[in-house]
Every structure is written in C-alpha cells, then in structure tokens.
Specification:
This protein is an alpha+beta fold. It has helices at 19-27, 130-138, 143-154; strands spanning 9-15, 45-50, 57-62, 67-77, 81-86, 100-110, 113-121. It has a single domain, classed as START domain (Alpha-D-Glucose-1,6-Bisphosphate, Chain A, domain 4, 2-Layer Sandwich), CATH 3.30.530.20.
Length: 156
C-alpha cells in the first residue's frame, strides 16, 4: 500500500429518530455500544464515554473502574457533526501515537428520520497493518454493526 494513499471506511445509515435525538443517542455510547465484545481493557467493559465538548476525551471504563483512552473529541457540533480521534493500536490497545479520525454527521432526512454518515479516515496510519484494519472496520463486527446497534437504540 502506498503510504501517501488515504484509506477511509465509510458507512451510512438511516435512523428512525429526529436529528437531535440521533445525535444525543450516539453520544450516549454506553447505552448501545457492545461492551461485552468491543472493549480495550482486560476486565469486562461497563461504559464507553464521549465527553460532550471539543477537547473532551473518548474512553472506556472497565468493571474494575480503570479508564482506557480511545481518543479525543476534535469537534462537537450538535446536532450536526462529531469528529473524534481514534487512538487505538492494530491490536486494540490505547495508543496515542496512532492518529486516525472518526467523523459522524447527522442530517435530517425527514422530521422523524436522520441520515447518519460515519467516516473513519487516516487508516494508512497503521502502516503495514492498514489493510488488516480497513478489513476489520468494514467487517461484520466493525462500523456497520455498531451503526446498526446505534440505530436500533435511537429508534426506541
């Protein structure tokens, strides 16, 4: 893979919820994130937290109360846009030296539905592991699954 080539995973979903509710539901990750399977800690996860402001942290909390950094909030623009850094190694451990971005946009499709687009950009930062990570993020357990879980929770 050419190191100057940008590698992006893009997923889009129509959520049966008004735009503001879709945005706040996404931010409340603990309610819909699959904590049993998508965790960075050794102990089971009990929370996935996005601090709701630019400069805030994105982190997981395990059953022992230990925090595990996932990234940072780069832009917080409710109810339209959320930009997060993803600072996780190819073996899913916190690693601030890995700098990729997850941008989530929310646009009104109708008063009761929201189009949500998620782009995970900069995957080339994984170097030799970039293709493996692209495949992981595009896999059945990747961003598509996560957006499906989010949309189901937002529609309640």
């Amino acid at each position: 893979m050419n190191p100057t080539t940008s590698v992006t995973v893009r997923r889009e979903i129509l959520v049966q919820a008004p735009r503001a509710r879709a945005f706040t539901t996404f931010i409340d990750m603990t309610a819909w994130w699959p904590l049993a399977t998508h965790t960075l800690g050794k102990a089971p996860a009990r929370a996935s937290v996005i601090e709701p402001h630019a400069g805030g942290r994105w982190y997981g909390v395990d059953a022992d109360g230990d925090e595990h950094g996932i990234g940072r909030v780069l832009a917080y623009e409710p109810p339209a846009r959320l930009l997060l850094s993803w600072e996780v190694s190819h073996d899913f451990k916190p690693d601030p030296s890995v700098q990729t971005e997850v941008e989530v946009t929310f646009s009104e499709d109708s008063p009761t539905t929201t189009r949500v687009v998620l782009e995970h950009r900069g995957i080339e930062a994984y170097g030799a592991h970039a293709e493996e990570m692209r495949e992981t993020f595009e896999s059945g357990g990747g961003w598509g699954l996560l957006l499906d879980l989010f949309a189901a929770h937002a529609a309640k």
